[in-house]
Amino acid sequence: MALPTAVKIVEVGPRDGLQNEKEFVPTATKIELINRLSAAGFPNIEAASFVSPKWVPQMADGAEVMAGIERRSGAIYSVLTPNLRGFEGALAARADEIVIFGAASEAFSQKNINCSIAESIERFAPVAQAAKERGVRIRGSVSCALGCPYQGEVPVASVVDVVERFAALGCDEIDIADTIGVGTAKRVHEVFEAVTKVFPRERLSGHFHDTYGQALANIYAALEEGIAIFHASVAGLGGCPYAKGATGNVATEDVLYLMNGLGIHTGIDLNQVVAAGDFISTAIGRANVSRAGKALLAKARSEAACS
Ligand code: HMG
Ligand code: MG
């Protein structure tokens, strides 16, 4: 299949990237990060979570973050909502899209949201219905689609099953998430070949963590399957609090460098993203793990020193 000519990059750094930080990141820093990302041109930013602060303390200030950001016209600001209480918060915060997050692995579902896959779908049903009634977009995220930290192998049929259940709830978009970054290109082909039979290809996304260094290869494999929505985290920030050892999402700068090289349109300014990656890494005292980001920063600094 020919590669897509344009892709949507969803920046998930403010949520997936920061949720696992041990030290509380000040609300003002989160807001500045999102504002910088908005200015760089992202069509979609995952900005916050409306989850239990006991489970994910870092995301406790979601309402303040959403109230403080400057919204770029036309951009979608998404938030995670595990239940109706989270949905009420999302609605009050004027979120453009809510994300319900389930798993293709029973063990991960229990660890992450404290219920079985079937129970999670029951819990999401009224959330999805309320979102439909209010005209809010719904995204469904399928964790552990390429492997699970507790159960190991996850059958492709389990992924297809959850995608079908999310489709029945009326999801506008569905994420195939490699929570712990164990997937390789062959598995990516197999999973997308299977899920595109039950949900439209153009509304499926790839959400790859880079724990095993496979994320860019996996994105390329997904592009070959005609997938045109990818999630990425600026400076490669992140990790899941309920998936020990999992590192951040693929770094946005690296994905943009790849897309630019392939001549695939994103509408995003790489240099501004590199600057945003430098800003947040410095602000929270964390190493910037984007290869392209670090290379472009070093190049800009050596050019500035020479001039
Ligand atoms: P629970 O303990 O089973 O449920 O948690 P509960 O109803 O007993 O609630 C526990 C406490 O949280 C109660 O407070 C509730 O009021 C409160 P208490 O009475 O003890 O004082 N609570 C809430 N507070 C604020 N907002 C809410 C909310 N709901 C309940 N919405 C629950 C069940 C789902 C709430 C919990 O397990 C939870 O919040 N989990 C979230 C986990 C999470 O955010 N994980 C990370 C995001 S997923 C991810 O990173 C994967 C992804 O990136 C894709 C991938 O890579 O795989 C998306
Ligand atoms: Mg994730």
Short description:
By secondary structure, this protein is α/β, with parallel strands linked by helices. It has helices spanning 13-17, 27-40, 62-68, 84-92, 106-113, 117-134, 156-168, 185-195, 215-224, 252-262, 270-284, 291-306, and strands at residues 8-11, 44-49, 76-80, 97-103, 137-143, 173-178, 204-208, 229-232.
- Bound small molecules, deduplicated: 3-hydroxy-3-methylglutaryl-coenzyme A, magnesium ion
Q: Tell me the span between the first and last alpha carbons.
A: 46 Å
Largest sheet: 8 strands, parallel, barrel
Apparent shape: globular
Describe this structure in words.
It is an enzyme of class 4 (lyase). It comes from Paraburkholderia guartelaensis. Its EC number is 4.1.3.4. InterPro entries: Aldolase_TIM, HMG_CoA_lyase_AS, HMGL, PYR_CT. By secondary structure, the chain is of the alpha/beta class. An eight-stranded parallel β-barrel has the order 1-2-3-4-5-6-7-8, surrounded by eight helices. Helix 9 links the parallel strand 7 and strand 8. Helix 2 crosses helix 3.
What are the salient characteristics of this protein?
45% helix, binds magnesium ion, 307 residues, 8 strands, TIM Barrel, hydroxymethylglutaryl-CoA lyase, alpha/beta, eight-stranded parallel β-barrel, 14% strand
Topology:
Layout: E1 8-11, H1 13-17, H2 27-40, E2 44-49, H3 62-68, E3 76-80, H4 84-92, E4 97-103, H5 106-113, H6 117-134, E5 137-143, H7 156-168, E6 173-178, H8 185-195, E7 204-208, H9 215-224, E8 229-232, H10 252-262, H11 270-284, H12 291-306
Parallel strand pairs: 1-2, 1-8, 2-3, 3-4, 4-5, 5-6, 6-7, 7-8
The structure holds 3-hydroxy-3-methylglutaryl-coenzyme A and magnesium ion.
The site of magnesium ion (MG) has 7 residues, from loops.
Organism: Paraburkholderia guartelaensis
GO molecular function: lyase activity
Protein name: hydroxymethylglutaryl-CoA lyase
